[in-house]
Amino acid sequence: MKQQLKNRFRSFLFRLFGLNPAALSSRYLFFGRREWLLVGAFFLLILIPSALLGYLSWRAIENEKLLARQRLEGSYRQVLVLASREVNRELSRIESKWRKSIRRFLERVALDANPELFDRFIAHEPLIESCFLLQGPGKLVYPTGVKLTARQWSPGVWGAQAHALEFQHFQQLKDQGEELEYQRGDFEGAIRIYRRLYRELKNPQLKASALAYLGRAQMKKGDLQAAYQTFETLLKTYPEVRDLNNLYLRFLAQLQMASILEIQGQDEAAIRRLVALADDLHQRSDAISMEQYNYFMRRVTTLATRLLTSQKIRDPQSYRRQLEQLSRQSKKRISQRFFIEFLMRKLYEATVEGKRYREKIHYVSGETGDDYYLLGYRFTPAANGQTVGGVFGFKVDTRELNRLLLSRLREKLKLGSELQIAVQTQKGDFLLGQLRPADQILASTSLEKPFDFWRVAVVGAASWLPETGGFRTVLGLWLVSLLVISIFAGAYLFIRRAVQEAYLAQLKTDFISRVSHELRTPLASMKMMAELLSLELQDQNTAGGAASAQAYAGVIQRECDRLNRLIENMMEWLRQEKGRRPYQFNFEDPALVFHNALEVFKPYAANYGFTVQASIPEELPELWMDADAIIQVIINLLHNAVKFSGDHREVSFAAGQEADFVWFSVTDRGVGIPRDQQKQIFEPYFQSNAQLNAPQQGGMGLGLTLVRQIVEDHNGRIEVNSKPHEGTTVRILLPIPGGEVQSAVSAGRAEKPVSQTVQSSDTPIGP
Question: Residue 512 pLDDT > 90, yes or no?
Fold first, then answer.
C-alpha cells in the first residue's frame, strides 16, 4: 500500500510537470533523490516568501480598510452629534412653544370650559391635531359626544380614599393566589383566593380581573365547565372593562371559551366562537393598539386552523371564508376613544396612588396601523390645588412636525443629497424622514427627554459607504494578488521546464548508450567473423573451410546490414528533425509497393526463423506517395513485430481498402504494449516496458517516430490495437487521391497531417 501511494504521488507529479508517467515503471528513474530535494527546496523558497508576502499585504490592506472605516464612522458620529443636538434643540423649541400655548389655554378653560374654546385652540395651533379634557371621575369635558361606561368610571368607586386601600388589598391577595397557582401548583387554594377577591372587591376593573384569574385557575385544575361559566359571566357582566394592562378582558374571555369548547370536543361551537371573536376584534380595533390586535388575530388563526381540520364541523369552508374575509380587513385607525381611555387609565393610576399635582407634560408614542402618534398629557389640579384632579391631553400632528422639523434641519446642517436626518420609533420605523431604497442607517442615538423614546439617525446611500478602502485599496489588493500569482506561475514554469530538460537529458543519455551498444555489437561480430574468415582463408585445405568461410561472410553481411539500418534510421530521423526529408511523390500501385517491401524483409525474417503471412488484394487504387518511404515504414513495423514476437515465429501483413483510404497492417503475437503507454511509443527515444522486457532488446527508439512522421507527411493515420501478452496490430491508413487530398499532396507534402489514433479496444484491427 505504501509503495502504491508513493507511485501515485510520483505519477501526479509527472503529469503536473508534463512528463510521461510511464517512465515511473521503467528500468530507470531519471529523477533522483538529490533532484527532488533541490526542487523541493526551490519550491519552498518560492512558496514561503510568497505566502508571507500575501499574508502581510492582506493584513496591511485590512488594517487600511479598518482605519478608513473608523475614520468614516467617526465622521458619521460627528454628523450625528450635530444632528441630534439640532433635533433636540428644535424639538425643545417647538415643545416650549406649544407648552406656553397650553398653559394659557388651560388658564382660560379653568374659567370657562366651553367646547368652542377647544375648537378655536385646535384651529390656531397647526401642530395640535386634537385635544381631550377630563375634569374628574367619569367627567369628560372634551370632546363632546363620546359615551363612557358609567359603571367603570362612576364617582362612587373612583377617587375615594377607600379605593386606594382596596387596590392594595387586591394586589396582596392576587400575589398569594399566583404563588399557589404557579409555584405550588395548588389550584384549589388559588381558586379560593380568586373567589374571595371577586366577593370582597367593589371596583369593576378589579372584579373583572379577579374573574379572569379564577377562570384561568379552573382550567388548570381541569374543571372546564366551571371555567366556561366564569368566562361567560365575565363577558356578559363586564363587556367594556380592561385589565390593569389596558387589555380588553372580553377578548381574553372569548378566546378561553373557544379553547374550552375545543377540549370538550364541541368543535362546531368552538369555531363559531372564534368567528365571533375575530369580528369583535375588527369592530373594536379602533380602541386597541396594533400589538393587541395582532396578538389576538394570531391566536384566532392558530386555533381555527386546527379546528377546521375536524370532521365534526359540517361546513368548514363557510367558516374558513368568514375568517379569511375578516383577516383581510385592515385594522381600523385608532379613534378618539382609544386616547380617552388611555387618559382615563393614567388619571385612575394617579388618583389611586395619590400623586401630587405637578405642571409637567408627559409624552407617549405608538403605532396606529400605518401611522404613528405622539400624545402629550398634563394633569390638572383638584379643588385643593395639591393633588391630581383631572387630565388634559393633546395629539400632535406628526406629519406637520415632520415637515417643520426637517425643513429647519436642512437649513442648518447643509448635509446635501448624500445624507439625511431621520427620527425612528422604538421599533425602528421611520417617524420623521424616510428611507430610500438604496439607503442604510449609518449612525443613530437616542434623543433627550422628554422624547427619549425616539432615536435620531444619519441615513445615507449604501454605495456612499465604501465596503473596501476605495480605489487605492482595491488596486493594491489586485497588484499583490497578481504579484503572488506571477511568482507561483514563474516557479511552476521554471520547475516544469527544468524537470522536462532533465527528462530529455536522461533520454538523450540513454539514447547515446543504446546507439553505442547497437554499433558495438555488430562491429564486434564483424571483427570476430573477419578474424575467423582470415584463418579459414589461410588454411584452404581444411575440410569444410569453404562452407565455414561462407557462413562467416553471411554473418558479416547481416551485421553490416544491421549496422547500415541503424545508421540509416538515425540519419533519417536527423533529416526529419531538420525538416530536410526529401520525398519523391508519384502515383504508385500500393499492392506492388507492399510486395516489394515484403520481398526486402523476407531474408531478414528467414534468418531469425520467422514467416510472414501476407494478405494483399491484387487490385487497389493508386496512391500519391513516396514508395521508398512507405517501404521504410513497412520494414520498421515488421522489424518491431519480429523483435517483440517472442516464441511466436509468425508475423501477419494485411492490406485493403476502407472508404477513401487504403490501409495496411502488421500484426504480431508477442508481448504487447500496456494501454497507458500506447500513446508514447511514437515519441523519440521512447521504449516501453514491453521493449525493455522483450527477448531481443535493441534499437534506438527512433523507428516508430520515423513511421509516424512519414505517415503524417502522406496525410495518413495510424491506429494501434494492443493487449499485453496477446500481441499488437498497427494499422496505417493512406488517403486515396482525389479532390482536396490530391491538390494537397501534389505539392510534395500534405498541408494538414492526419493525427494518429490509438484505439484501446480488444477487437483486432484488420480484415
Answer: no
The reply to whether 486 and 455 lie within a common domain is no
Model pLDDT, residue 401: 84
- Is residue 8 in some structural domain? no
pLDDT digits (tens, 9 = 90+) for 238-270: 988 888 777 889 999 999 999 999 999 999 999
pLDDT one-digit tens code per residue, 437-449:
567 777 888 888 8
Greatest mean pLDDT range, 90-99, 465-474, 542-551 = 90-99
- 285 with 153, same domain? yes
Task: Tell which phi-psi region holds residue 765, choosing left (phi > 0), alpha (psi between -120 and 50) or beta.
Answer: beta
Neighbouring residues of 719: CB distance < 8 A, sequence distance ≥ 6? 730, 731, 732, 733, 756, 757, 758, 759, 765
C-alpha–C-alpha distance, residues 708 and 682, integer Å: 7
**Is the same domain home to 83 and 155?**
no
Q: What is the pLDDT of residues 691-731, one digit of tens each?
A: 544 445 455 567 788 888 899 989 999 999 988 888 899 99
| 160 half-sphere exposure, CB direction, 13 A CA radius | 13
Asked if residues 117 and 108 have their Cβ atoms less than 8 Å apart, the reply is yes
> HEC string of 692-748?
HCCCCCCCCCCHHHHHHHHHHHCCCEEEEEEECCCEEEEEEEEECCCCHHHHHHCCC
Q: Is residue 507 in a domain?
A: yes
Rg of the chain (C-alpha set): 53
Question: Which carries the bigger pLDDT value, residue 545 or residue 630?
Answer: 630
Domain range spanning residue 50? 30-108+398-469
Q: Which of 457-466, 483-492, 494-503 has the lowest average pLDDT?
A: 457-466
Is 1 contained in some domain? no
d(CA 671, CA 647): 10
Final residue of a domain: which of 451, 469, 487?
469
Q: Which residues lie across from 373 on neighbouring strands?
A: 366
Q: What is the pLDDT of residues 278-304, one digit of tens each?
A: 988 888 877 777 778 888 888 999 999
Lowest mean pLDDT of 107-121, 246-260, 615-629, 698-712, name the range. 698-712
41 Cβ neighbours under 8 A, 6+ residues apart: none
CB 468 within 8 A of CB 53: no
Nearest to 759 by CA among 720, 731, 726, 714: 720
In the three-class reduction of DSSP (H, G, I as helix; E, B as strand; rest coil), residue 201 is classed as: coil
Other C-beta atoms lying within 10 Å of the C-beta of residue 612: 18
Buried b / exposed e over 620-632, threshold 16 CB at 10 Å, is: beebbbbbebbbb
- Give the residue from 584, 581, 629, 638 showing the smallest Cα distance to 607: 638
DSSP H or E run through 130 = strand 128-134
Contact 394, 375 (CB under 8 A): yes
Helix (H) or strand (E) holding 95: helix 33-111
Cell representation of residue 340? 380617552
Considering the domain boundaries, does residue 510 fall inside one?
yes
Lowest mean pLDDT among 56-60, 156-160, 183-187, 386-390: 156-160
Can you tell me the distance from the alpha carbon of 702 to that of 684, in angstroms, rounded to the nearest whole number? 6
User: Residue 675 has what DSSP assignment?
Assistant: G
pLDDT of residue 729: 94
